[in-house]
Design goal:
311 residues; two-stranded antiparallel sheet; 2 domains; mainly alpha
Length: 311
């Protein structure tokens, strides 16, 4: 999702709620029980401790912050369901995405105010670090979705449907293999066509052999590597120079095929680059989604332990 002006209302609303929560938190922890600067007194029920240990999270205000954060966790986890149910008339997917981003950002002050800026014991420390991993991976994914599409538009003059890249790559390899067999048959037929094994092979006749050596020595290894890292064809400038030199050293009849080989190399290189960008664009979900599930389960366990202890 790209952050643009449509996110401004969300930023204002979340910023306002954060300031309100901060005012309540620091007011509840002030000696006078009043909101700083405004000097507005807080109700007594917000100041009372509901636990003999008098922890911040056990106070009514701390519990309120914690419950709000948990409800946001539940809403955030429902995004995956909403994406699969696009016909549901419960807000657009874009609305859910924006709400997912900004409401989870709101959980940062809610969680900090709930725990009183302290990790506590082992149980709450694990919960906090699970939350930190989820948030960091989420911010990383948001940054990738904001910048990478622009980079892909600039650096990929041609783009393929991601799921079709293996099929396109396989078709290119098969075409190169067929070209290799064709050249091999041409070379075998040359002595007979020239009138015997002792016939002189002209410069034009040598073109198939030159191309075949290039195909077997560089191109086939390059096309077989999905990362497009093997051979000197991996770097575009070097590849262009090699193919330019090859084009000069073959007869005119083979030069259109050299141009086609160049197109294969360029496409293979760009497909590999697109795959790398795609992995950066979506790979963070491998961490974000399962850890989010663990966080949700651990939060439920935390609530169970908390209310069992409080009662």
């Amino acid at each position: 999702m790209k952050l643009d002006r449509s996110h401004t209302p969300w930023a204002i609303i979340i910023g306002t709620i954060t300031l309100l929560c901060a005012a309540l938190y620091f007011g509840a922890h002030s000696p006078t029980g009043r909101i700083p600067l405004l000097r507005i007194p807080l109700p007594e029920w917000l100041l009372d401790a509901s636990s003999p240990r008098n922890t911040v999270g056990a106070k009514p205000l701390g519990l309120t912050f914690g419950i709000l954060a948990f409800l946001i966790f539940l809403f955030a986890s429902a995004l995956g369901v909403r994406k699969k149910r696009r016909l549901w008339r419960i807000g657009s997917v874009q609305f859910w995405l924006k709400a997912h981003v900004w409401l989870t950002i709101l959980t940062i002050p809610l969680v900090l105010f709930h725990c009183g800026f302290r990790l506590g014991g082992t149980h709450t420390s694990i919960l906090f670090w699970l939350y930190a991993i989820v948030m960091v991976s989420g911010f990383f994914g948001l940054a990738m979705q904001h910048f990478l599409p622009h980079i892909m538009m600039e650096r990929l003059p041609r783009e393929w449907v991601y799921e079709q890249i293996p099929n396109v790559r396989a078709a290119t390899f098969e075409a190169a293999l067929a070209f290799t067999k064709q050249l091999d048959e041409t070379i075998k037929a040359q002595p007979a066509a020239a009138g015997g094994g002792t016939a002189t092979i002209t410069a034009a006749d040598a073109s198939p052999k030159v191309i075949l050596e290039f195909l077997r020595g560089d191109l086939m290894h390059f096309l077989a590597d999905t990362r497009a890292k093997r051979t000197r064809l991996a770097e575009r400038r070097t590849s262009d120079e090699v193919l330019k030199l090859l084009r000069v050293n073959v007869s005119d009849s083979y030069r259109p095929q050299i141009d086609e080989v160049k197109a294969w190399c360029d496409d293979h290189r760009m497909m590999a680059y697109q795959e790398r960008l795609h992995h950066w664009l979506h790979g963070w979900l491998v961490i974000h989604v399962p850890i989010s599930f663990v966080l949700l389960v651990w939060t439920v366990w935390h609530i169970f332990i908390t209310f069992t202890y409080l009662n």
